[in-house]
Amino acid sequence: MLSKHVIEDVLAAALTTGGDFSEIFIEDRFTNNLTLQSGKIETALSGRDFGVGIRVFKGLRSIYAYTTDSSREGLLKAAANAAQAIKGETAARLAPFVSQAAYSIHPIQIMPRDVGKSRKAEMLHNAFGMTKNYHSSISQVTVRYMDEEQNVLIANSEGTFTEDKRVRSRLAIQAVAVRGNQMELGFYGPGAHQGFEFFENLNLGHYTSEAARIAVTKLDAIPCPSGKFPVIIDNEFGGVIFHEACGHGLEATAVAKDTSVFANRIGERVAPEIVSYIDDGTLQNEWGSINIDDEGEKARKNILIENGILKGYLIDKFNGRRMGMASTGSGRRESFRFAPTSRMTNTYIAPGNSSPEEILSNTEHGIYAKYMGGGQVNPATGDYNFAVLEAFEVKNGKLGRPLKGATLIGNGPKTLQMVDMVGNNLSHGAGMCGSQSGSIPVNVGQPTIRVSEITVGGTKGE
User: Fold this and answer.
1) Do 323 and 256 touch, CB atoms closer than 8 A?
2) Are the CB atoms for 170 and 193 separated by under 8 Å?
3) 109-121, pLDDT tens digit by residue?
4) Are the beta carbons of 302 and 279 closer than 8 angstroms?
């Protein structure tokens, strides 16, 4: 993408005022987005984005600059501008580059750029027809297609020199069901670290049916009661609660500043023995998976909580300096426009020994949260408020009527402590996570779990 000689010159220029570490991140990204609505392709957009980020450290100071000018002169100017914020006595020397061989643990079979738009549009039309024909109450369907190819080169003054190709594909299906003046929404958005083979192997009927079924089911929902109840949270995207309310608190971005409730607690019990919490970027071809992070570190499996005991954090290079700890391969960023920081990949509660049927039958009354919606979290405290996209009442160990207006209100670390049953049906859901280094693809996951008590906000008292 750039010659080694130019990269060496840029890294050296960034150190001229006394920096002790410099890094260059070069990105060339191709994207395709198609949207089908009312049976017609409404948008078909393709784009390319190229740029370079340059970072300098001096002790516990970090400076970041980026540019779209990839000429030698433009890059040296950006490096010099970044260096001006650093004042030190002695500049670090560049270590010889140690090139890493191509390192791909996520095989790509069909590059999306090799597939014509007509083939992609045909898949969208098929998804539209399946969703629309699910039930007569489905009045509107929107299907979105996305693929991207991100090529990066990462080099630093410590000798790292590595390249990576990231290819991701995603489909988003939204269904609207209408009855009289009532309108309900259903959604499903599967994705993977794969090429166009993802769409060819996708069980399209399952995802279209689920998006439509959610919308149709909610037409018969009754108002959710308010109060404190046992809550069963289904697998897959149910894991978004712990991603938001606990996962972010385990990132060094918060831990290094002591703004996390999990700071300085390694070795302490933070959950019941049946709970283990893991972030694993090596899961083959999963949406949140990586080959290397955005600092050139290899992906790995990080056990954060093991049998209830806090074992570690997600750490990037700079926050690792603050904490006196090594990187865990967790430095991620949206693009060259952002400096990296510690972020999740595929974060999930490990499977337990209970079947979903056992969990349900052992719950006399409560709420069953099948699909989670959006929410808000205070990362410093872990306090959260999440809407439930689809919920049911639980009575005498069986699912009852669908509920509407359900909201889960609580504190992540406290909710973690009250998990009393963990299922054996682990599954992952694809999503986007926003933080100070931008929006990145992540998986959230868990098996079906039961929390002994969560405050449920509804639409009426009970």
Assistant:
1) yes
2) no
3) 999 999 999 999 9
4) yes
